[in-house]
Specification:
By secondary structure, the chain is of the alpha+beta class. The protein has seven helices and 16 strands. The strands form six sheets. Strands 4-5-6-7-8-9 form a six-stranded antiparallel beta sheet, with helices on one face. Strands 1-16 form a two-stranded antiparallel ribbon. Strands 2-3 form a two-stranded antiparallel ribbon. A hairpin with a 2-residue loop joins strand 7 and strand 8 (153-161). Helix 5 packs across helix 7 (355-366). The chain is globular, with a radius of gyration of 23 Å.
Amino acid sequence: MKRNYFLTTLFYLSLIIAISSCGSDDTGDYQQIPPVVVDSIPEPYSPVTIDTGAVPYEKLSQYNFFEGDLKDLKPVKKVLPYDLNSSLFTDYAHKKRFVYMPEGAKATYTADNKILEFPTGAVLIKNFYYENVLPDNTTRIIETRLMIKKESGWIFADYIWNEDQTEAFSSLRGGFTEVSWMEGGVPKSTNYRIPPESECFTCHKHSSTALPIGPKPQNLNKDYNYADGNANQLSRWIQEGYLTNNVPSLITTTADWTDTTKPLELRVRSYLDINCAHCHSDGAHCDYRPMRFAFSETTLPSNLGICVAPQEVIGGSLPYIVNKRNALKSVMRFRMNTVNETQRMPILGRTIIHTEAIEMIDQWINSMDAPCP
């Protein structure tokens, strides 16, 4: 009897050791997500009010996404904050993102590089704001953009904040607002562009269908510092009942392009994916161009434009989109380094130059193995 008890105990100890030794991240683009523990205890209902037949509402406060002072952006129950590995550049504006889904509804995983399939009633909430706004080094929220999933598909709703930062009001006309701030100890200013609805659709579309851009598993697979501690976002979405529990343990994952510990090309591909792929893909606004900047497609040098001739003469004598070992003679670098509306890339979303990204692109192109033939 004692021998059997000893052998049984030894077996379970070996099993525990074997399980605990697994789970280290693979190298490269693949990152493992931790196992999910789903809490079976029912939670209180969310106070969020979404009538898909009545939205968009006139005021942001009518949705009840946030509690307390609206400008604090403190989410109520079931409004979940999230982030992306790399973010779209919008004249240095910061973003606070949240997601809401109706009770019992959840998104569906389809592929690492595909937008999650969201249920009717889901809302993606993105707040654009600046810190260290001059002259008083304050925080100013400029706009809150919503994408709301109705039965007929996604709609846009944009809310422009008042000067007192007490409310944001619906407007799809767009406009401009001057803002000056300190960025890394350097004063900057811009006439910030709030896009009209037509420009939202220019970027957020596949053929004639409106779609989100960021919430793909490849972009969400990262830790987030929630109010109750750090957790992997995909695991947290599953735990919250916001995502089907069929996500694979290994996810092809983009990188934070600002993380200089990551391989340079991985950072470049991640930056181009979030800033350019929504236009440079099949069925998108610039699908007639030869480049395909989606993260899953840029393992091919030709999709990055490396040694690929441009379709028109631009910026003088620039023979290739990416001219190996010669950034100054590359169309990509030229378009990223201009604010001319007819030549800049991206064509929307920025009015000033993203200096830090230019430095990365220069380093990447100039460090390539050999010149183009």
